[in-house]
Structures are given as C-alpha cells and as structure tokens.
Amino acid sequence: MKPVIILVETQLDQNIGKVARAMLNFDLTDLRLVRPKTEHNNDTARRLSAGAERVLENARVFETLPSAAHDLTHLYATTARPRELIKDVYSPKEVATRLESIHTPRGERVGFVFGSERCGLENEDIALCKAIVSVPLSRDFSSLNLAQAVILLAYECFQASPAKAALQAYDEPPATLAEYEGFFEHLTGELEKAGYFREKNRKGVMTRTLHNMFSRMPFSSQEVRTLRGVVATLVNPQGIYSRPKKTRTPQS
Ligand code: SAH
Description:
The protein is an alpha/beta fold. Helices cover 39% and strands 11% of the residues. Bound molecules: S-adenosyl-L-homocysteine (SAH). Residues 78-81, 114-115, 117-121, 133-135, 137, 142-144, 146, 149 line the site of S-adenosyl-L-homocysteine (SAH). The site of S-adenosyl-L-homocysteine has 20 residues, from helix 7.
C-alpha cells in the first residue's frame, strides 16, 4: 500500500524538496500539490530533495482538493490541532494498522492531506476526509515541520504488513472521492432547489456539516449509486401516486 501525498497551499519550496526526499525513503512517488504558493521543481526544492528529483518532476498540480484526490478511496487529513469537526482521530501507527487491509488490486488507494506551514488545513478540506491523523506530541509544542509529518506517516505505512489484504469483510470496492463528490453535488443541488439553504449566511456551515457526515462513512461505489437513486426518486417520485393507471382488460 503506497499512499499518495497531497500538499495543500505549501508556502516553502524547501519543504516540498524535503517532502520529496522523505517520500522516496519509503518508496512513495505520487506527490500532488493543491494551489502551491511556490515553485515545486526549482533549484532549492531539487537540492533539498537530495536525489529525489524524480518525485518533484512527476508531481502534479491541482486547483482543488477534490480534483487532486478524485481517484482515492481512503483520504485522511493530517493536523496538529484538534478541530471542531466530528471525525475520528488516529495516530500514524493506528491508521497504518487500519490500512493493512487496503485491497490495491481492487482499486483502493490511500491519500494523506497536509496543510500549509502557516495555517494548516481548512476545515472545508478536512470535512472531505474520512478521518484525521495526528502525531501525538508534547501538549505544549505539537506542531511538526511539514516534511517531518510526512516522514512519520510514510514510516508507519512502510512498516505495515500488506498480508492482511486477503481478510476482507466485504467484497464491494469502496467509493472514490469523485463518486462521493458526485453524490454530494447531486444532493446539495436538490436541497438548494427545495429551499434547504434558506438562511444564506449558514449555507457554508450546513454544507460543510453534510460533507463531513457523508465523507466519514465507508460507503462502497454501489452504495453511493444507491444513495443517488434515493435522492433522484425523492425529487421525482415514481411511486403509486404517479404511476399511470392500468386499464383493465375485460375477462374473457
Ligand atoms: N501552523 C499550523 C501547522 C502547520 S504544520 C497549524 O497550526 O495547524 C504543516 C502541516 O504539517 C500541517 O498542516 C499538518 O498537515 C502537518 N502536521 C504538523 N504537525 C502535525 C502533527 N502533530 N500531526 C499530524 N500532522 C501534523
């Protein structure tokens, strides 16, 4: 299991270089950058990558977290600070243990999302993730350098044994972030039309709450399709009241 590393709004090229180095130490090569505030493949980044230039060269840049993570099925937000969102919080070791059952041949892919040096991740981004990973540290001094946070997660995932992949509790592939987002847009679009977001100033918070609720559920692709069918049917009922009346055929 080789997690994808996603950096959101990273400010320093030197940190991107150090992240590339930390990744390649553990055979990780898929680096994705969301709205980076600096160049990611300049001289400084390349020098600090200490030989991991190919990670920088192959890094991809995205405008939004949903586009960067569209193909991932298990997305985790990393934070030093507790947040007011209802999300499970794991240590890197706990998350690595959970991920031992990831089934790569079935298309399951993990991503870890890291925030900017100054502000960390926005709650909107965390709300898209299944859970939070936080490295337990000194209560009074709990913020790591970005590349240090990456290396601690990469280390634990590298130690985790893939042998447990065979022990699947269910057979259906989990939904990708793009599938979750498709459902979510469908749902909020219909809620908008139905007047759910009447209080305009609360729309942001209500949307984030909904996002947060659905993203922490371990839905399969099929279950997400089922939910979309539920929304479509509620919007456009096909039930007994709208079914065309059957004309009786006279009994012979
Ligand atoms: N000043 C920011 C911290 C930024 S550190 C804040 O107060 O949130 C940059 C990034 O490194 C964070 O967004 C997070 O992704 C990661 N990070 C830092 N410390 C961490 C910790 N203890 N556990 C998990 N991730 C951490």
